[in-house]
Amino acid sequence: MVEPVLIEREQMWLVGLSFFGDPFATSAGWTEENEIGRLWSRAMALLQHHSETLASRVVGGISYEVHIADQEAITKGEFEVFVGVEVRDLDDVPLDFCVKVLPATPYAMFTLKGQEIVSDWDWEIEEAWMPVAGYRRSYAYIIQAYDERFVGLDRLDESALDVLIPVQRVP
Amino acid sequence: MDSVTSMTAAVRFIEEHLTDEITIGDVATAVHCSLYHFCRVFKRATLHTPYDYLMRRRLTKAARALVGDDARVIDIALDFCFANPETFTRAFRRMFSCSPSQFRKAGILDPLAMRPPLTDEHLAHLALADGLHPTPEDLPPLHWVGLMTLDHGEDQRNALWGFMSSLFEGHRGVGGAWSVTCYPEGWERHGPLYYAGVETKVPEDGLLVAKRLPAARYARFGHVGGAAARQLTLDTLHHTWLPQSGMRWAPRMVVERFEGLPSDGDWPVSWDVLVPVIEA
Questions:
Q1: Cβ atoms within 10 A of the Cβ of B175, count?
Q2: Domain B135-279 annotated CATH 3.20.20.80
Q3: A74 to chain B: closest CA residue
Q4: For B3-110, CATH number?
Q5: Pairing of strands A98-102, A79-87
Q6: Residue B218, helix vs strand vs coil
Q7: Which residues of A touch B46 (CB under 8 A)?
Q8: Confidence band (pLDDT; 50, 70, 90) for B51?
Q9: CB of B126 within 8 Å of any CB in chain A?
């Protein structure tokens, strides 16, 4: 796995939709229609529906998938997964959206390419990179940032994906 | 570590900690996976979510304890890490369709209702079969002639089909071969009933038993792995697919459809397994 780039991000406002549960309860394959795939479909349709309202507020051409793991996740394997886009402000956000406010924090940003995207990169980061680099997680979530470099699961070898892990230095 | 190997280790870890307060995060860490990746790989390898599998194994052990000893229900609940009797009863009812007290009173351990531990063979078989994906199939009324016995294992089924082959050898007009495994009430004491039959115009001669099944809807599965893996497919149907399907299994039987007559020691590699189902 390549070395990350350490970046600082200000507070981020994301609008989109959430799912809570085991996203693989119905189907576990990458190419199958699991709850994350369905969440993307729902969120993208909703964003499209409100595209005019949001047009002036959406930041960049990036879509985010955020995995939030609390104690429930560790106990039962049930997560919150959020899919959405970043906005500049939260004025007049349509009622049917969920909003996530991500804190200002440093991130370790890893750019995954090809098969790395479907590997267990989270474990690699946790077990291999963090102890050596002297970092630990600052919050219990991870961000996957999808932009034009990600061209689809059926074209993984041509795709790239940025993963952002909120981190802090181990004192 | 490949995914089958690590999921074998995960199943073993769960089995060793059924009475310990473990989390799914603990299981993932034990097999060197992130929680998220582990949940995906476990489901793909076993067709259970990790938490569902852990709960079903705990409830199965608890059910055995209810029938097998006289410990108080609350103590059994606490032994298997349920926080209180209400949580235990709710989970128990979901799996066994009755309360722990009713289960103890009935005193029947139906092997099909229990979730036995997944073995290395089950995981290897699921990987070979790429899971089990049912296709709905409506069958017309079926009519066969054949023989029925108590099913005491592969040797007996082999012998039955060997006898059937000798009976029908050289006969024209013998169509497909079918078997029906029935699980009537109390089957756990004697074993299921196994019927081997053929579609044929050969007249019934008194030796053979005619069997008719009415038109019904079935969930059809493609079994692979020959006779040696048959029980692995049935285990997956009984203990994984049926409890998750939301379907009612009725009548309690499994139908198997073969291309030709299986003969002694010469079973095909694959055939159809059909489970009669009714939308719940």
A1: 11
A2: no
A3: B25
A4: 1.10.10.60
A5: unpaired
A6: strand
A7: none
A8: very high
A9: no
